[in-house]
């Protein structure tokens, strides 16, 4: 997930690092970065075998191809399933959908800026960064995709209650990333003191790449972790216990973990193609909810194709259940997540006005007899 770095840390660490975002234009030396929470590398996914263009189908807006990007992990399940089952292509007619995968938000934002992709599934912090860095000129958030899927998993022999977290070593994916900020905010709510940058204090916050967190847990170098799926379920498979589901800390147990973005230029030039992709997303989410077992299998089949192996049942089964796929971008929670980072001293309050354009999505929802979704006052005027 994306990370927010403090000015002091960014100034001290100049060496290149995979997943680092450039500093915000509005705040020199303050950068948002993305930890390696993806489970694959940038690549073309190829055809799933179900993404066939129907005979007699016509191109939308006269466009040959729409280029779509996403991460090969479960919080991007809408894109995984929609790609695997050919549900986006069905809505696009003879306009061919092509796909690229990314394991870091910065590279996806760069791809959007360079027109290597047109539309992408991405986490909240890189969307905030991409929008703010360009002074509101490069992207819009046009829809929601997923909520939840983040947990505090601990060693039950060492931690038996939430109060027992004090004095322990808890991993987060990266300094300032979405889960790191959430954990720091929770610690503050407990009345404990932790230096946000160093992670030292009443709790030792250990920034650890999601890919190695399970090994760190097995070795005993950490006592638990505040992490997204499927890392959380991997820890449970190693004997960990879910002590807290982050969803329980949010109103209605919902908070944004994945959104859909589009380049503003592409949205202006090809609004009907954008609507078609959003229609495919809405129908994919409907299919996921109506066919949970088939949808989980489809997502895992795509992960196997992309990563070389599927997730085992003991990991994907609980992980899939903890993620809610939603068309609503949960705009109010995006603002709250930014506020948490500001309170932690890791981010200067960004200007998010105009980050959303939900008119195309609400048009699709209205046609489907569904209620409109809200931009929490952060929509384009």
From TrEMBL:
Source taxon at top rank: Bacteria
Q: Which family does it belong to?
A: Belongs to the bacterial solute-binding protein SsuA/TauA family.
The name this protein goes by in its record? Putative binding protein
Q: Which GO terms describe its molecular function?
A: ATPase-coupled transmembrane transporter activity
Sorted alphabetically, which NCBIfam families does this protein's record hold? SsuA_fam
Hydrolase: present as a keyword of the record? no
* GO CC term (a single one): periplasmic space
Q: Which Gene3D superfamilies match?
A: Periplasmic binding protein-like II
Xref: CDD domains: PBP2_NrtA_CpmA_like
What is the protein's major site of localization?
A: membrane
Ordered alphabetically, the record's keywords are: Cell inner membrane, Cell membrane, Membrane, Signal, Transport
